[in-house]
Structure formats: structure tokens, C-alpha cells
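Readers of this paper often ask what the protein records in our data store actually look like. An entry from our holdings is shown next, in its original layout:
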Amino acid sequence: MAKPPGAVTVDAPPLRTAWGPEASVPALVSSLRGARSRLTVRPAREGGWRLIAPDRISALAGQAKAEKGTPWPQPLVSHYARYFRDGNRTAYEGLVAARQQRLTRAVVMAAIQGADSGEGWLDEVIDGAYLLCEQSSWSWAAHDDVYTHTGEVVPDRSRPYLDLGAGEVVAQLAWLDHILGDDLDHRAPGLRKRLRLEAHERVIRPFLDRLDWHWLGLDGDVHNWNPWIHSNIITAALLLVDDAGLQATVIARCIEGLDRFLASIPADGAIDEGFAYWWNGAGRALEGLALFEEAAGLDPDLPVVRALVAFPGSMHLGDSWFLNVADGPARAAGSLPWDMLHTWAGRFGDPETVTLAAALTRAEPDPASGLGRVLTSLTQLGRTCARSEPSKRAQMRPSWVTWLPSVQIMLARQTPGSTKGFTLAAKGGHNGEHHNHRDVGSVVVAMDGIPLLVDAGQPTYTAQTFGPDRYKIRAMQSGWHNVPAPFGLEQGTGREFAASVLQEPTPGEPTLALGLGLAYGLGHAEQWIRTSLLNREAGTVVIDDRWNLPSPPPDGTHDVDITYLVAGTVRLGQDATATITPEGIPTVAGGRGVKLRWKPATAVVLVDEWHLDDPLLGDIWGEKLTRLRFRMPSDNRASGAFTLTLEATHEH
């Protein structure tokens, strides 16, 4: 099929360049012959599942037993329509997720207990799988284009929308078919035929027939949907497509799609969507490549893949805290498949990432991560991830300065190889990044691995999140990030609202100097210069702002503010000082805080409390975040300087 006019061509596709003719459809027909027999995840009838230790599924089994025999979660059209009526996404997506997580638990129980156990787990799987087949749409309402095309708020089964949700459903059905297929044939003849029919009509055919899916990246804009969906389609093609020619055609198209994603990755392996979206972007690509390697024997050991594996560790602050740019929480979700990263890091000889992944891997996989991730984790049986003692905390990567030029992010650590002391993160970049927040020039400062000058992160998604009013959401605004506000201005949106790097950090000098003027639409970048540095010997962080401003624009004010968003408890002191302690941050039991000093001391400090009623934000930060706005005195507005210095306090 010809690509649409204007499609961007990848000059050196990493996978196809490395694999050559072996990535062609005829070669794949041959190499994929017998692929299912080579997969590490094995069917239940082979018996290995019964060897899984009970403590690896204790919570999963307890919930599965409690819910078995109760009504299944039932997403209704009224839930689906809410997104189009009032912007609520969670009413529908929450029920869909609950249904799929229950099915994941049932599949694991059926595999471990065996179809002949008499406990009814296979019937639970059959019911859950059939409910998904009967579900009118596999896409999430927020993604479906039915309303845009017709003004209707109910799914149109004749126009299936291939999105993240559809990819997750088809992969789940593919995995359960692989694990329990023979038992399904015996217990519910015809179900596997239905699974294949639905997979073909809702996923395989739309994938092959249409080239206007935005996530294909044919327009050059490649984001996390690309690897997430392509990797799920690889799973579906391997496990639910029986025609060898069709299977090879689908997978060849997926390789082409993943190549567009990998070709978009900069040499430093940075992801502009940040740590959280790495897992549902780069992490999904790694999973798809690992599965494909098992199936076809083609080695994905490429420089870009190695760079991607290193990225999560470079964003680590301490324990489960990570630098959260864009739409991402500051604390890593509990469902992340760290064992997957551990396997890749071990393969590539990256001991720091191995240590980090081992420390954060949970003994029991979380059904919220998806059936494929759960089955893969359980199949490993702990042999690839030596788990840490409960008291052991995840450690830093050993280098004390990390610089990712593609996204203009610096992380500087006071103590190499440890969370102890300061960690300073400073970010340039631009405001056209994927899942962008207006955060050009922002800083995050952690003490002993706990962030205290913070980025609030991602609130609960609604229709507003990805609509024209996105930047009316407080968490996305520059006014609620750790950046200046010359003339009270918000930063602009788009690639042109960017930072200019004036000084790059080096191993000997962890200093990042940025020109920020263009982020606010000022005349040139150096009308506002921010320099962020970590003084390792003195044990201080210094953030220095200097500016030379024109007259206030019509949409501005006469005020010049510099904002810092604070987690924990703030106490203003005398003589231009304040202290921040981690009191009030959930799961943080004491610890050192930081003392702030600023010059000029005549800056007025305005304090705003943000009481968090959003559960995603409240679970991470507690009841509130505090904004400190330093308002410059009248003689320090048009041209001036402001310096904030942070030093450690004693244990609180």
C-alpha cells in the first residue's frame, strides 16, 4: 500500500538496516514458522505454571477468589458518553480496566490451578474473554473519533478505532489464547474462533487497511502510542493470526513502524515525555522487540536500544522518586515491570540499571500492568532479577553529572552512587514537547532522594487535558513550575518558546546556564538568563537569575516574579530565609530538609497554598503543595538579579 502524500521517510531505519532482507515478508514467513513453540511464556498444559511459588501471586489470588462469582464490571454507554458530555474519562476507562484486570487474574489462576482443578477458573476466563468480544468498542472513549465524524456518543462497530485501548485488549486475548488455548477448545468450542474474528476485524484489518492513524508517525511526529500499539499488534499477530503470509505482512508493517520510533530517538536516548511515559513508549518497544526476537531470532542489540535502556536510571532521584517532566508522576507507579528493564540492563552489561531495577522490582506482578507483563514476570520465576533485601534502597547511577543535550536536562548529584545529599535537576527544552508542560528553565531539587522543590506532575486526565484549554490546568502552567514570571507572563506554547543553552554542564562543573527570554515571547533569549549549579564541596545548590527586560507588554503587568513550588512543610524565617522539611509527604518518615537564602533580601515573598483534591496528586504530595513567589522590588525589575541558595538542614 502506498504511503499518503507528505509521509516522512526514514533514511536509515535502525531495525531494517541491521536485519536487511531478513525483515522482508518472504523471510519472515520462514523465520516465524513454529514461533509459538519458541516463546519463553509457555502454555499451561506444559505444567510449568504449577511450580510458581504461592507468595508470587498471594495478593492476586486473594482478589481473584474474592471476585469470582460476583458480577463482572460492566461499562455502559452512559459511561462511554460521559467523555463527550462532560469530559470525564475515568467513569468508562476505570470499568474497562477493572474488567481486564479481573480477567488477567483469572488467566493466572487457571494456568496455575489447571483446567481440571474443579475450581471454575477456566469458566471465569471464558466469561471475561467473551465479555471483551461483546464489548462494542475496544478503544477508549477519549480516543474514538465517532463524535468528530458523526456527532454520536455511542461506538460505531462498523468503524473500529485502533488506539491504545484496542491494542491492550487484543494483546490480552492473544496471551490468554496462547496460555489456555487447548483448554478453551475443550471447554468452550468456538471461543477461539471468535477471538480471532474480533482481533481481525477490530485490529488487524484496520491496521493494514488504513495509513491515517496518527500514531504511525508518517507525518514525522512520533510519540509513545507508536511502540505501545505496534508491540501489542506484534503479540496479536504471533498468537492470533494463523495464516503465515498475513502474519508476516502484519509483523513486517510493525517493524517498519517501530523503526520510525527508534529513528526518532536522539543519540543520548532521552525521551521528551519523561520517565513515566518511557514505560509506555520505549519500554513497550523493548517488550515487542524481545518477543519478536524469541519468535524470529533477529537480534535487536542496537546502539539506540542500549541508549533507551539507560534512560530510566538517569532520571532517578532516590528510592521510588524520579524526575518528572511533562505528564508524569514524581513517584514511580507500583505496576511498572522493572524485571523487564533488569533483563535488558543485564544483557547490555549496565550494572547500575541492574541494581536499580532489582531494588524496585516487586515480588508479585501487578495485574494493572497487563496480562503480557504479568505472564512474562511470572515466567522468569525470579531467575533474572535478584531481589533486594526489604531494607535496601535503590541506588543512583554512579556518575555525579548527567547531561542529556537533546532535551537539555542536567542531573547533578552531590554524592556519586548514593541518594545522600542534594540532587539538582535543571531543564531547558521547549514548549512543543510531547505531553508538554510549560516548564522551560524549571528546576527540581531533592534532599537525600526526596524532592522538595518539585514539579507537581500529572493530574487526572479529562477532556480538557488534551483539548484547547489544556493550559488552563494549573499543573501545566509555568506559573506553577519553578520558573520566572517576567511581567507576570506565562510561557508560550510551541517549539519556538524555547531555551538557549549558554553553558553546558561538564563532569568537573555541574552548571547549566540557559537563556529563557524566548520562552516568554521576549525579544531575545538572553533577556533572562538562569544559571543552576550544584556546589559539591560546599554542599549547596545555587539558582541565579539575571535579566534585562523591555517595557511590559500589553498583556503583562509591572511585576517581576520568580516562582518555586514546594512539597512538605514550609517555614518562613527572618532575614530572607526559609526552611522546607518533608513533613506531610506521604510515605516519607522524617529526614533532612533544606534551608533557603535569597538575595536581594528586599524581595517580597508571596505564599500560595494549593490544596490537592486530585487523587493522583494527593497520593504523591499529600494535602497540599506550596508556591513561593519572590516578587522583585521596584528598583530590581527592568534590570536585576535574584539568587536562591539551598543548603541542608539537620535531621528533622
In short: The first strand starts at residue 316 and ends at 318.
